[in-house]
Design brief:
The chain is an alpha/beta fold and 405 residues long. It has 2 domains: 106 residues, Beta Polymerase, domain 2, CATH 3.30.460; 218 residues, TIM Barrel. Helix content is 39%, strand content 21%. The protein is built from 11 helices and 14 strands. The strands form 2 sheets. Strands 6, 7, 8, 9, 10, 11, 12, 13 and 14 form a 9-stranded parallel sheet that branches. α10 links the parallel β12 and β13. The N and C termini lie far apart (90 Å). It comes from Eiseniibacteriota bacterium. This is Divergent polysaccharide deacetylase family protein. InterPro entries: Divergent_DAC (IPR006837), Glyco_hydro/deAcase_b/a-brl (IPR011330).
Length: 405
Amino acid sequence: MPKRRSAAATGRTPLILGALAILALLVFAGGELFAFLSSDHGRVLLYRHLHLGDRAHVVRLIGKRVHAGLRDAGVAPSETKEGPGSGTAALRWTVQLPRSGSPMKANAGITREVERGGGVVLSGRERTLDRDGLAVTLVVGLPGFATHEIVIERPGLPEKGDARGKEADEDDAPAAEPPAIALVLFGFGDDDASDRAILKREQPFAVALSAAAEGHEKMLRAARGGAHEIVLLVPMEPERYPTTNPGPGTLLVSMSAGKIESMTRGYLREAGGAIAVANYMGSMATQDEPFVRALYRALQKEGVGFLHLSPAPRAVCRAMAASEGVAYDTPDFTLDAETKPGRGKALAAAWEAVLERAGRHGDALVMMRATPAALEFLDAQLAKKDGPLFRLVAPSTVLHRAPAN
């Protein structure tokens, strides 16, 4: 005869099932809460209301929303110039729209995306520019913490003739100054004779030289002797290191902050006057906040900015630059594959894009591989019968300066 369950055991069964159900609900709710707080929106709200999290990371997250708003408004990335703030906010972005652009549409897109991401528009104002131009300035971020000042400008109408409606005599008008192109040549070290010939040129370009590769001391001396500005390529840890390896002297994320700082300062002192440090590889290092903080501490002490080459999607360098007091730049163009033999049409098309950007913004910072084909093309552009459509300028005149302490 089967044994009957006791009444007590039967009565406990619903309680156990109920407790398990509540536990499952708590686990589910906890998982959802953790997922939310780990999201971009959750991290912004956590910092906004409880001041928990990393300040530089919040700047980066708000910046992502600003980019999304500009993209939704149809603003191309090339129309945005980013730099350190001047006191109002951590960063200052200038958006140069074409005459047909709409600052109000960009304003609406930024406001919508920033608020969707947990941020707020702290202030906004309009002002008119000459000849029916318009500028809209927004300050966005969190209450008590301005992350971005965004200036959106639409130019006015082209200047016409005198008050009687006659067109101005173009022959009597002063010629407009051609836009500036700041050129940084890279790709040295394969041919000593070619390298020496390039460094003897008198054009005001800069050269990007390795801080640690074999024979780098000789190249640095030659560059200084030729009075060329130096962008120092510091090897930094890439993803899949050491399978992918920048070579000797690489700065690693596993190094202590003190060692990263001391090695970087040593490289700069050996270079003897670099205008900027640039990353050679570094896709892993530039995503690591402690690494970037140590790197920036060295740059801040040496008074040198950071030129970020091929930024990784999750790199933290831009967002941390303002808070660490370091000037940050990225090249407007990098001409590499186009400079190979037989790629003349591709190089010409890329150069047209460079000139178009420089014409709209007044200047362009260009990295170009120093191949014979590239230098021959550059010489042809400078030797045009009616004169070049641009001015070559020293890159130090275009790079940002560190914000004042």
